[in-house]
Amino acid sequence: MSPETYAQVSNLVIPTATVIYLLAMMAHALEWGMGRAVAVKAAVEQPAEVLVGSSSAGAQDVAVPAGAASVAGGAGGDGGSERSAAASRIGVMLTWLGFVLHFVGVLTRGLAADRVPWGNMYEFTITSSLAVAAVYLVFVHRYKLQWLGLGVTLVVAATLGLATLLLYTPAGPLVPALHSYWLVIHVSAAAISGGAFTVGALISILYLLKSRAERGVLAGGSMSESMKRLPSAEAMDGTAYKVLAFAFPLWTFGVLVAGPIWAEYAWGRYWGWDPKEVWALVTWVVYAAYLHARATAGWRGRPAAIIAIVGWLVFVFDFVGVNLLVSGLHSYSGV
After folding, report:
1. Does the pTM exceed 0.85?
2. Which of 43, 131, 198, 238 is deepest in the core (most CB within 10 A)?
């Protein structure tokens, strides 16, 4: 096929993938919406208790009675209805379909331009959102993260929609500064780690919601069916840590090692305090603080979740805000 044909295929497939992600989001929204309030009373008199979200430096969450913890815990929760579980499965299947179409769209964009498909803001956006979906699907297979589907499909669909409507740029050649194999190393590492940062932030947000629901159970309240389907707060805290521990060294290598090497090749200096470089470093510092606090001070639970969310917000500003609001050497690209 000709480059024009590849470009047409990409321009058709990317919006189609967006629609499929939206359908997946609707399926997951239906999954959550099917939940009805279920009274889960705290049985203080039970001798056995399960400590949920415990930590070592006083930054723990709550102690949930064993009976309540068995309902709240687990990958899907024992209290979920069959229809809710079916909606979850449909959501994951649609996410896989959207991912395949999304991948085809990114691939054909690269074939249309006869280069790697991340030479501008539009291309980096569709590639990084593909990385978000890929990281999610890998962790669905490994850690049963179906419960994260609503947040992931919302983020990916919104990102693709904004890219198509506001950031689209016709396929074309690279600017001279981007002609380097370091482009592949630097940007691919940034995209994958950015996808993991996004997944980690979504898990941290749900962690805060679940830990609040567990505290409500201790106060004698009820927990919605959708909250019961989530894993325990402790389990989500550990999963967020695994995701971010995977992303941090990749970001370190791709952005703070490969990036400066590429900068020296393109601009004749390794580091020049360009706004993009500064915010990439700030992102690294926040996630370094997250991992350091967990390893040395024993920060877990709510404090760690807040740092993870702040880190993601800094990453988003580095990815979007710097390019749109600040003029610098990276203004022509998304990286």
Report:
1. no
2. 198
